[in-house]
Amino acid sequence: MDLIPILFRITIFILSFLYMIPLNEAAPTHSSPYDAITEFHIVFVIPITFHSTNILGTLFIFYRTYLRWKRDHRSIVLSLRFPFYLAITDFLYSSSDLINYSYSASNKSKFLNNEVITLPSPLCEIMGFSIVLFVSFNVLLVGAISIITWLRVVQEYYFELGKYDYKIWFPIVILSLIFPLSTLNAYGPTKYNCGVKPEASAIMKIFFILIVLTLATILFCYIHILTKIRRVKEENSSVSSSNNSWMYLNNIEKKTLKKVLTYILVFILQYVPVLIYNMCRLLKIQNFIIGVIVSSAISLGGIGNVIQYICNEGFRYQSSSVTCSDYKSETKAEADDEQKSNDDSIITNNV
Prior knowledge:
This protein is mostly helical. The protein contains twelve helices and two strands, in the order ααααααββαααααα.
């Protein structure tokens, strides 16, 4: 089961939706194939549903993380901190966009009369800035997780992340602030909500490059992780005479491959629609359904994070549960210490 052909086919499948957009809509238009009531329900009900589901999922992760912290009375292992951090960025984004869409949806009569339904200025500009900031948090955090995992597994390089993992958060916050602050005039009201103005092409180009670079980074890191695990399995198979050991290593490889594919697939489903949306905006293609898909698709990352968390930790909290050991700590007799071994469980628990 090769990773690259599968991801290539998935990406092509998603990009194929770009051809469903009529080319004759390349010029700005104010017409819609739907009546005003139908358009209202499509534009607002779908994103609000996705954001609400995402928020409930993040609250579930917050609650489970709190229970584990309360039980252990110590720092939570890295494999559980990363889903928690992702849940924070997902919660911030969905909460902001939920307020954004809910305010516009509350002005249904104005929408039907083609009046302004967005937040008043300067709240609208602040809302647009916040949404771009929180999306930047999420994208950069995904990239940071893949790099840290690659360093620990492939390069076998361990380093202290500092109190509250500030060595992760500090560069992410700085970089995330640079992008929106460099385009302060790009935020304001659109037809349906507050966000990036249609004429603000600079921020679209920046995000296009950011998403492509992050996708390339996670592909590079996780392909090398799978290669490393396969090489370790082959090395152990040449010296091991136990069938149980061989089956264990084979199961670890399959388990890790499945989680890697899921992790990358979630990112593709989450941000490839954003790439398509930015391309459409740059080409002056007007189609409100694309905007609905983008806003809802970003929430898929949080929903996917919850699904992965439940698969790894279970739906119900069990006080007797023990975090799975890392693949390397299982195959090496000379593991450094318990905390490092637990932190390395990111390979099998959070890849």
